[in-house]
Design goal:
Elements lengths: L7 H27 L4 H6 L4 H4 L3 H5 L7 H11 L12 H11 L2
Length: 103
Amino acid sequence: MPLPKLTLEEKKQALKKAQQVRSQRAKIRQDLKAGRTGIREVLEKMDSDVIAKMRVAYLLESLPRIGKVRTRKIMNEIGIDETRRIQGLGSRQRQALIERFGN
């Protein structure tokens, strides 16, 4: 299936929207890293497009003292695929993340 042909204005709008989404995700990551918000609050806002389409690994790496290696280990223990997005988490997986990281 070929990609749709976008006008110059549509391309500009798409780029602007993508930049806004990246900025919002960066803010969420900063809040997690600084402890201003917890994983429970983020997972409760799953209906937000910004959060729903974020990768779980990207979210976990934003937590203090959690890097790529620990993220991979945690995701394997819980049974979450490395490419899983937050909207694709099952209720047990969400609950396991909340129990693991408390707040």
